[in-house]
Amino acid sequence: MMKQIFDEALPARNTHLLVVFGVIWIGTQALAALLGMLQQVQVDRIAHALTYDIRTQLYDRMQRQSLRFFAHTKAGEIISRLSNDVAAVQQTVRHSTVAILVAVTTALTTVVLMMILHPGMTVGALLAVPLFVLPTRRVGKSQQRLTRLVASTLGQLESHMQETLSISGAVLIKSFGRQTDEMERFKKKAAEVRDLSIKQYAVTRWLNALMGFMSAMGPAILLVVGGALFIRGQVTLGTIVAFGGLLGRLYAPVGTLANVHVQIVSALALFDRIFEYIDLPAEIQEPPDPVDLEEPRGEVHFRGVSFRYGAGPWVLKDISFEARPGQLVALVGPSGAGKTTITYLIPRFYEVTEGAVEIDGHDVRRLSLKTLQRAIGIVSQEPMLFHGTVRENLRYARMDASEREIEAACHTAHIHDVIERLPNGYDTVVGERGFRLSGGEKQRLAIARVVLRNPPILILDEATSHLDYESEAKVQAALEDVCRGRTVLVIAHRLSTVLRADRILVVDAGGIVEQGKHEELLVLGGLYARLYTEQFKVRPKSVDPGARVQ
């Protein structure tokens, strides 16, 4: 149309033809705008769908990892990959998809039109295309390295924020007066992100400047070469004007493709980080032919169990014992002896290295994961409560629990009266990690939650450690009813909580060094007797296991 306007409409002073070309020009622009909008809508849909797929796959893979993974990985690093890295990939997909589609289509159609206008000048114009491509490889590698560094540093910054801006972190910082130090640490890490990001954009700006310079060279050369051809009468003025317009439509897409190449190469660093986690094998997997126990009895048997983390030293060695329904088995011993690790092997939080853990005669590695989740209830030393209402935290155990069942569980855990005194009762928001509740109240709420689940196997990991003696006595009395008919394993440093245990396992250095009832172990005069003497400052004489020790 440009050629026709300059070669026919203007020389002939044909207003009608000029108007026709003008209307066609406006029509093509309107059509281009409509197609561009539809194209962008579709690309947005694709980008968001891709982001959804990646994010859900990544989250699902994280859910399938064992505790070993979470013990060695900062939560902020995981969240950074789920949030920052996936969002950056989404932006790359959105911009690159449109850019590639438009650039390739525009470049190909432009080359065809240029060949029609003047094959010789077209070949000359194409000779400059490699100049756009050569810098992109080096720039791409540089951007990939910087992108990886930025993503890694952002993950560290996210971890720092998560640690210091949590309730526990805030209490620790304020109690030691480390606000200034933490601010300096934050500034240092944030400055690293800033400096790396500036380098990233600087590299991109230099590339864009180079592309702009090369794009400007084309029209300049065209004016000289095309002008000489026009003077010789070998081309018309319309051809030169049209060719100049097409030259911009050729070099602009080529420059865009060079930039997209750099963006994609940079995004590969993010894909590497994301798929590093997505490709992690799940250590704890559903067995190929799982055994599903509809109503597990809860009989637990450890048979020569040994465990270690990878190729590290043995954490547990040759652990063997049995716990039957209706029995309370206590695990005592010094910190770091392996008591909690023993209980974590039952629900397969960790995988046994040697030997076997059995429930109702079935190796836990053969049971379905749903059976294990249905059969086992755990109350940990530091109960986890979500930032929600009391009712929502309780129903996490059973979403279909009725109000009567919820209140009955809270009565059992001696927490109902406390809840009733809260501003909104069961609809009171407990705050981040249950911060609005005391330590003892959180423990009893966690006990009520596991009571609501009603599992045949109950694991109490220092479940009464935060209770005063009066609350402990109430919970102990309540647990006698809760534990009746169940297999109960109790980890306790406060030995007063295990005097009535059917069997006490004394764990030290990853092995069971003593076992028996309370009085039997006192008479034995071993590690248990020493722990008892140190804790209560009494001579280990005859003790009534039904009496409370002050």
List keywords for this structure.
single chain, alpha/beta, ABC transporter transmembrane region fold, Rossmann fold, 2 domains, six-stranded mixed β-sheet, four-stranded antiparallel β-sheet, disordered C terminus
Structural commentary:
- By secondary structure, the protein is α/β, with parallel strands linked by helices.
- The protein folds into two domains: 2-158 and 193-278, ABC transporter type 1, transmembrane domain (ABC transporter transmembrane region fold); 300-536, Rossmann fold.
- 61% of the residues lie in helices and 11% in strands.
- It is built from 18 helices and ten strands.
- A six-stranded mixed β-sheet has the order 6-7-8-3-9-10. Strands 2-1-4-5 form a four-stranded antiparallel β-sheet, with no helix packed on it.
- Helix 16 links the parallel strand 7 and strand 8.
- The protein starts with a helix and ends in a 14-residue tail after the last helix.
- Mean pLDDT is 81; it is low at 540-550.
The level-1 CATH class of the largest domain:
Mainly Alpha
Largest sheet, spatial ordering of strands:
6-7-8-3-9-10
Tally the structural domains.
2
Determine the mean pLDDT: 81
CATH topology of the largest domain: ABC transporter transmembrane region fold
* Rg for CA atoms: 36 Å
- Derived from helix and strand composition plus strand pairing, the structural class reads alpha/beta
- What is the number of strand segments? 10
- Assigned CATH architecture of the largest domain: Up-down Bundle
Runs with pLDDT <50, length 5+?
Answer: 540-550
* Shape designation: elongated
What's the helix count? 18
| Percentage of residues assigned to helices | 55-70%
Query: What is the H/E order?
Result: HHHHHHHHHEEEHEEHEHHHHEHEEEHH
What's the CATH superfamily of the largest domain, by name?
A: ABC transporter type 1, transmembrane domain
Reported for the largest beta sheet, the result is:
6 strands, mixed
**What gap, in angstroms, lies between the N and C termini?**
100 Å
Portion of residues in beta strands equals 5-15%
